[in-house]
Design a protein that fits this description.
single chain; 6-stranded parallel sheet; elongated; binds thiamine diphosphate; 2 domains; alpha/beta; Rossmann fold
C-alpha cells in the first residue's frame, strides 16, 4: 500500500474543495508542496506575500477560488492588507502558511514572530487552525470549505513537523504556470558560470575590512564560512531589508559599505533602490547576486530567471553607476574600478547553495561585534 505524504493529501483536499488559483512565496520547509501546487494548479509566484493578498482579492472578485501558500513570516508582512482588504471587504481567502519559529527552529530571527502569531491573528479576528500531522488535515479541509462558504479569511498554520519525513524536492529553479515565457529570451542567467559561494570566494580579499552586510539565509552563512570578519553584519531575517540596513549604515559611517543582496530579496523591495538613488551615499555598493532563484529556500525561480533584468530596473530607479559581471575576472575588475557610489553591481550566478553550517553567533553577538569593530 502506498502511503500518501502530507503534501499529496493536501493537494487532493484542495482539489476536492475546488481551489483553482494560488499565489505563492517559498519556504524551505514545504518544498514538495510548493512544487506540487505549481504543477497542479494555476499559480503565480509573487515577489512579496502582501501582493498575493491583493492578487487573490482581485481573483475572488472575478469569481476564482483563490488561496495562498507562504511562510508564516509573510503573515507578519501581510497584516495590513488582510485587515484593510480581505477582512474589510469580507473576501474569501485560504492561506496555508508554514509555521516557523516554534517546532525545531534553528533560525533565531524566526522565533519572536512565530511564537506571537496565534495572538496576533486573534487580535485581528482572523480564523486560524494548526496542523501538525496528517490526522489534523480535516481541519484544513474545513478551513477551505469555510473560506468560500462564509466569505471568510481562513489561515492554516502548517507545522514543519508535517513535512519532516517527506523526501526533499528536486532542486533547480522551477517556474510557475503563468510565468513560463512564451518565447525564448536571452535572460542574464544564461551567462552564469559561478555559484554564489564561488563568487564570494573570489571576493575574499575585496571584503577585507569593509563593512559587509549580507542577505538572509545562505548568503550570510556562506560569507561567514569564507570571511568571518567582525565588520560583517549578517541578516538572519527581515527578507528585503539588507540594502535598507546597508543604506542606514552608509549614511552614518565613513567606511565603505558593501551589501550582498539577492534577486528574490531585491524584488521584494525594489523601492529601496529608489531611496538609495535619492540619498546618493558615495560609500555604498550593492552587489546583487542574481541566481534567478530563491536559493536559500530550495532554488524556486524568481522573475529574473525569465523576464526581469535587474540592471535595467536599477537604472530606471535612478542609479547611474550600474555594472554587470559574470566571471571572477569581470567581478574583481569591476569592483577595483568603482568610483563614488552609490554603485550597483549585477553579478550573474548559477543557482545553488554550499553545504555550510548555521552562523554560530546570536543576533546580539552579531550586533555587538559589528558595532565595536566600526567605531
Ligand atoms: C517574509 C518572508 N518570506 C519568505 C521567507 C523565506 N526566505 C528566506 S530566504 C528566501 C530567498 C531569498 O532569495 P534571494 O534574495 O534571491 O537570495 P538567495 O538565497 O537566492 O541568494 C526566502 C524566500 C522569509 N524569510 N521571509
Amino acid at each position: 500500500m502506498t502511503v500518501l505524504t502530507a503534501s499529496d493529501e493536501i493537494i487532493s483536499i484542495l482539489k476536492e474543495e475546488g481551489i483553482n488559483f494560488f499565489t505563492t512565496y517559498p519556504c524551505a520547509k514545504f518544498q514538495n508542496l510548493y512544487n506540487l501546487v505549481h504543477s497542479q494548479f494555476m499559480s503565480l509566484g509573487v515577489t512579496k506575500e502582501e501582493d498575493g493578498v491583493g492578487i487573490c482579492a482581485g481573483a475572488s472578485l472575478a469569481g476564482a477560488k483563490a488561496a495562498m501558500l507562504i511562510q508564516s513570516t509573510g503573515l507578519g508582512n501581510m497584516i495590513n492588507a488582510l485587515c484593510s482588504l480581505t477582512l474589510t471587504y469580507e473576501l474569501p481567502l485560504l492561506v496555508l502558511a508554514s509555521w516557523r519559529g516554534v517546532y525545531k527552529e534553528n533560525i533565531s530571527a524566526q522565533i519572536k514572530l512565530g511564537k506571537s502569531l496565534p495572538k496576533i491573528l486573534e487580535a485581528i479576528g482572523a480564523q486560524y487552525c494548526i496542523v501538525t500531522s496528517n490526522k489534523d488535515l480535516p481541519k484544513l479541509q474545513q478551513a477551505a470549505k469555510d473560506a468560500y462558504r462564509l466569505n471568510s479569511l481562513q489561515i492554516v498554520l502548517l507545522s514543519p513537523e508535517l513535512f519532516e519525513n517527506e523526501p526533499l524536492a528536486e532542486s533547480g529553479p522551477n517556474i510557475s504556470h503563468i510565468m513560463v515565457p512564451t518565447e525564448e529570451k536571452a535572460f542574464p542567467g544564461a551567462e552564469a558560470t559561478l555559484t554564489r559561494y564561488e563568487i564570494l570566494q573570489a571576493l575574499e580579499t575585496y571584503f577585507e575590512n569593509k563593512l559587509v552586510i549580507s542577505n538572509i539565509g545562505f548568503p550570510s552563512r556562506e560569507l561567514h564560512d569564507i570571511k568571518p570578519q567582525r565588520t560583517n553584519f549578517y541578516m538572519l531575517g527581515s527578507l528585503g531589508l539588507v540594502s535598507s540596513v546597508g543604506l542606514g549604515i552608509a549614511l552614518f559611517s565613513k567606511h565603505e559599505v558593501v551589501v550582498i543582496d539577492g534577486d528574490g530579496s531585491l524584488l521584494a523591495n525594489l523601492g529601496i533602490l529608489a531611496s538609495i538613488a535619492q540619498a546618493e551615499p558615495p560609500n555604498l555598493t550593492i552587489l546583487a547576486i542574481d541566481n534567478g532563484a530563491h536559493g536559500s529556500t530550495g532554488n524556486q525561480a524568481t522573475p529574473t530567471a525569465t523576464c526581469v533584468d535587474l540592471a535595467q530596473v536599477t537604472r530606471g530607479l535612478g542609479f547611474t553607476n550600474v555594472f554587470r559581471a559574470t566571471n571572477p575576472k569581470e567581478i574583481t575588475d569591476t569592483l577595483s574600478k568603482l568610483e563614488e557610489g552609490p554603485n550597483f553591481v549585477h553579478v550573474i550566478a548559477e543557482a545553488g547553495n554550499a553545504d555550510v553550517p548555521i552562523i554560530p553567533l546570536s543576533p546580539i553577538e552579531i550586533k555587538k561585534q559589528f558595532m565595536r569593530a566600526i567605531q
